[in-house]
Amino acid sequence: MIHLLFACALLLPAPVQDEKKTDEADVLDPKVVAAAVEDLEQAFKKGEAADRIAAIERQSKVVDGGVVDWIAKGLKDKDEKVKAAAIEALRWMRHPHSLDALHTAYKKQKDLAKNAELYAALIRAFAQHGDVRSIDLLRDNPLNKVDVRVARARIYGLGMIRSADSVEALMGLMHVAGRWKIQSVMKDFRVSLMVLTGADQGLSQDAWTSWWNNNKKTFEVPREQPELPRQVQNGWNRYWGLEVERERPEKRRERGGGDDL
Predict the structure, then answer these.
(1) Residues near 216 by Cβ (< 8 Å), separated by ≥ 6?
(2) CA 86, CA 123: separation in Å to the nearest integer?
């Protein structure tokens, strides 16, 4: 059921930002904020789990610190579906309180790690903010004893943060768990490293290590993501809930035997 909740959350309206206001039209109406807070307060104090989920989904488009703080209460809810709804809402709400709440949940709520789907969602949520403060959290756990969804969340999460420190962290994770265990997730490493660097050393740990050793002293992550093969880009976009470019059907003679992933 949780994965259905995640999918539905992608259909929510785009958030109304309260950061970096450039004109009067960008300022949130205090009445809208007050109504959102009231709705959430009533749901959390008097409602059932379904009421809390519904309120989170309704009000996640109102990106205000007070609203975020109420939604963040869902991270500590006894009901895992409420936790999932709060994680997904905070994933998209671009506000400093959102990232702080997700970081705090990751550091302090160790029970979340018992549910691999929920834990992977939490990691993806804070990584999607693209903040360098998340790098240490993403690389703090070797990948040899984690669920494949959690491993991908860490690897892809680092790829979402455009910093040379992310590349360094990926290379560290690649080697800490041992060659054979890491090989099963080398596709994920390849994608994240391509996103960050524009280079492609395939699925070879040795090739990537050699490339990094030769380039790390002078390497700078491009400000904009390099162009990727369409299949790779679409897979990346699907993971992050971004727009996927529609592929035109290929004529038989155009189809090759290669695999972009």
Answers:
(1) 164, 167, 168
(2) 13
One digit per residue, the tens of pLDDT, for the chain of length 261 reads 444 444 444 444 444 444 443 333 457 899 999 999 999 999 999 999 999 999 999 999 999 999 999 999 999 999 999 999 999 999 999 999 999 999 999 999 999 999 999 999 999 999 999 999 999 999 988 787 789 999 999 999 999 999 999 999 999 999 887 788 889 999 999 999 999 999 999 999 999 999 999 999 999 999 999 999 999 999 999 999 998 665 544 443 333 333 445
The residue with tokens 């904009």 is 224
Q: Are residues 104 and 136 in the same domain?
A: no
Q: Mark whether 171 and 217 lie in a shared domain.
A: yes
- Structural domain that includes position 62: 1-20+30-111
What b/e readout covers 94-126, taking b as 16+ CB neighbours within 10 angstroms? bbebbbbbbbebbeeeeebbebbebbbbbbbbb
- Regarding whether 88 and 43 lie in a shared domain, the answer is yes
Claim to verify: residue 155 and residue 185 sit in the same structural domain: yes
Q: How far apart are the first and last CA of the chain?
A: 29
| 260 assigned to some structural domain | no
The closest alpha carbon to 195, from 148, 156, 243, 244, belongs to 156
CA distance 166 to 160: 9
d(CA 67, CA 151): 31
Is there a domain that residue 252 lies in? Answer: no
- Global pTM reads 0.84
**Domain assignment present for 51:** yes
In the chain, the number of structural domains is: 2
